[in-house]
Amino acid sequence: MTTASSGSSAHPVFPDVSISTERLVLRPLEEADVPAYAEMMNDELVTAWTSVPEPYTEEHARTWITRLAPAERTEGRGIVLAVTEFLTQRLVGIIRLRATDWRVRSTELSYVVAPWARGEGYASEAALAAAEWLFRDRGFERIELRTAADNAAAQQVAQKIGCISEGVLRGAWIARVRNGGDPFGGWLDVRTDLIVWSLLPEDLEGVSESLAESGFSAFSDWN
Length: 223
Description:
- This protein has helices spanning 34-41, 44-49, 58-74, 122-137, 152-160, 207-212; strands at residues 2-5, 16-20, 24-28, 79-85, 91-101, 106-113, 142-148, 164-178, 187-199.
- The protein is of the alpha+beta class.
- Strands 1-2-3-4-5-6-7-9-8 form a 9-stranded mixed sheet, with helices on both faces.
- β4 and β5 form a beta hairpin.
- Residues 215-223 have low confidence and may be disordered.
């Protein structure tokens, strides 16, 4: 189920939207999400595979949630959605659409999942929900994902939702590793490759049914 509202704009923008799946609700971030968001972004894997500040403070989270993320939508670049559990309303993660090309009808999708919520299929469920909404409701024709070469978990999500690997961008990303492997040491920047994935509307054929066999349905309803 989706609900949306939007005001007038001089350029294309995504509407404020809420997307419901069987287990999740994708909605705009709220200031009340600040503590949970800051905790999630301080996770070791998030630090390793993203470019977020380290340590990630609640002030960082508040600036992102109240100013920077809303500007992504109002300036037409994309949209950032909180992913929450339907039953508990607990923050599971985020879905971000960025680098949106309105003429080509394409955008880049990325996702972060809180450490406590991993292994439940939430990333695949949320990414599929966003893709279904983009293709069926917003008329998009292409979604791109980029995953670090050693980030196997992110690659598995891309494969589960039907993405096709298009190639490798050599040395295109900076990952972070613990200095000397010490979990209490500092972080070192390490250059890595990026795998480029694409998803077209026809690639979703059969994906919902496949994921349903894993224990959940993509949508309980769709408007």
